[in-house]
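URGENT: need a sanity check before tomorrow's submission.

F., can you look over the Lipoprotein with Yx(FWY)xxD motif record below? I want to be sure the sequence and structure line up before it goes out.
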Amino acid sequence: MTRQTLSWMALFTALALPGVALADHAMEKGGMLVDHAGMTLYTFDKDAGGKSVCNGECATNWPPLMVKANDEPAKDKWTVVMRDDGSKQWAYGGKPLYTFVKDKKAGDMTGDGMKDVWHVAKP
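Structure tokens as predicted:
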């Protein structure tokens, strides 16, 4: 094989590896925000000023939408907030975003309206 062929093969192999391609943190689908797997994203009324107050048991039940090392930089209304543990979480319009453990498949919205403080995130 030629050197050029090997270079192209290496490039295509690298692009096919998990975690190498640029990741989409979330997207709009059906008038709401969902993560890369199509799971519904939520906002928490008790969060204020671009800060998450959902930690500990709350974060176990409402996992934050975490920023991964290969995520694209935030743009438009997308921002990143720093969590109490130093990790980074995606926010939209300044509101930190979460999934809900009781949502089992893409499109589930079982957390909407929970305790009157959890709501489906909308663009």
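My own read: The chain has one domain: 22-120. The beta strands are 26-29, 32-35, 42-44, 78-82, 88-92, 95-96, 118-120. If you see anything odd, call me.
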